[in-house]
Design a protein that fits this description.
The protein is of the alpha/beta class. Among the domains are: 117 residues, no CATH class; 29 residues, no CATH class. The chain contains 15 helices and twelve strands. The strands form two sheets. The protein has a nine-stranded mixed sheet with strand order 1-2-3-4-5-6-7-8-9. Strands 10-11-12 form a three-stranded antiparallel sheet, with no helix packed on it. Bound molecules: iron/sulfur cluster.
């Protein structure tokens, strides 16, 4: 792994020293609001008392100290019976991994903490429900060369790595990520040759796994190769790093990314609790570098399925110059029933957001259609009728208005 200095992450060092009492305490109950800054600091001082803030802010340190087993998890919290049963399984499971930083955002005393539900396995993952599949989007059928999905004519999905620092339990690509299949990096050259040979491809989305876990050198190489293909007009990166490993957004990485502008980064954001001083700084660094930022969020039962939580999340994203882009209905990946809401619940959330806040804070609510039909937007019913009188629309308050559509006059 290349060595990245954390020296320049100085603004994250500006934490007030903790009192002896604070260092010695167990975490307070979840109803006591702690400041975002003290959250990570308390965690570090309690569980890593000999670790300096500079080490904590080094993304390599975070990766090295990931929590990946039940035994390690016991150090931090008491697993629920469902979590213990899931992690005790002897047969293969989608890997478990969480960075110390992300664990520090979780209320360790609250088994219902929203972020905890998204990263700590539950035995419900073992239950296969009707309609679920390991490849619900049928991506394997639109994979002309390994590691490349070519579903839409002018766009491809470049699966650059199978590694993520944190594994989301509802991951659509759990069949590919987690390092249990062949390393996707082996296929880069074939995928690049395919893109170079197809002049209709103008948009490449680098995904995985999480591409921002690649080293600066590897990422720079991939971006450089794509830049040299004349018909590729835009490159996008999909990542969750700014919210699970914000220490990765180093000045050195920013320098690489800046070289290959225009560059678009879509950040996977789940819940307002993911906002901290570190994640804000990561997003701001990317925005300051002239990278266009958008977000994508998966609608998850018991995690973010309320108007208040979603509105809060989208508002917070805008404060760090991330435009809410997609709200995804959770894909029917095998073992995901405990995460999936009804479509009506999603519509209800959209009804509660649109019109009640700035349009900039409203993402597209989409279903990525099973079998590979692509993303289809879902709208609450705003059109009431369309006849010779015009188009009758229901506004966000439920009031009716008619637009005099010329075609019907
Ligand atoms: S970060 Fe993305 S690719 Fe990685 S586990 Fe989460 S959803 Fe899957």
């Amino acid at each position: 792994m290349e060595q990245v200095s954390a020296q320049r992450l100085t603004s994250l060092d500006e934490e007030p020293p903790l009192t002896n009492q604070e260092v010695g305490i167990t975490f307070p109950p979840s109803d006591i609001k702690r400041s975002e800054k003290s959250r990570s600091t308390l965690f570090r001082k309690k569980f890593f008392p000999n670790t300096t803030l500079t080490q904590w802010n080094d993304w390599h340190w975070q990766l090295f100290h990931r929590i990946t087993t039940l035994e390690q998890l016991y150090t931090y919290l008491s697993p629920t019976a469902e979590e213990k049963a899931a992690l005790d399984r002897k047969e293969w499971m989608f890997p478990f991994s969480v960075t110390p930083y992300y664990l520090s955002l979780i209320d360790l005393n609250d088994p219902f903490d929203p972020l905890r539900k998204t990263v700590i396995p539950q035995i419900a993952e073992n239950t296969v429900s009707p309609g679920e599949a390991v490849d619900p989007l049928g991506e394997d059928h639109t994979t002309p060369v390994a590691g490349l999905v070519h579903r839409y004519p002018d766009r491809v999905l470049f699966l650059a790595t199978s590694f993520c620092s944190v594994y989301c339990r509802y991951c659509t690509r759990s069949r590919l990520v987690g390092g249990h299949t062949e390393a996707l990096e082996e296929h880069w050259e074939h995928a690049l040759d395919y893109i170079a040979g197809h002049s209709e491809i103008r948009d490449v989305i680098i995904s995985g796994g999480d591409p921002l876990t690649l080293s600066d050198g590897r990422l720079g190489y991939l971006l450089g190769r794509l830049k040299k293909i004349s018909h590729v007009q835009m490159v996008r990166i999909g990542t969750k790093v700014p919210f699970v490993l914000p220490q990765r957004i180093t000045p050195a990485l920013i320098k690489v990314l800046k070289t290959y502008r225009p560059l678009y980064i879509n950040i996977h954001a789940t819940h307002p609790n993911e906002f901290s001083e570190a994640s804000r700084q990561a997003c701001n660094r990317l925005a300051d570098a002239g990278i266009v930022l958008g977000s994508q969020t998966v609608l998850l039962k018991g995690v973010n399925d309320s108007v208040a939580t979603m509105t809060n999340l989208f508002h917070k994203l805008l404060t760090v110059r991330v435009r809410p882009y997609y709200l995804f209905q959770c894909d029917p990946i095998t073992g995901s029933a405990h995460f999936r809401t009804t479509i009506e619940a999603g519509k209800e959330i959209m009804r509660g957001i649109r019109g009640f806040t700035s349009g900039f804070a409203v993402p597209y609510y989409v279903v990525d259609t099973p079998g590979g039909g692509g993303k289809v937007p879902i709208l609450p019913e705003y059109e009431v009728s369309h006849d010779e009188k015009g188009l009758c629309l229901r506004n966000y308050e439920g009031k009716l208005f008619t637009y005099p559509d010329e075609r019907h006059l």
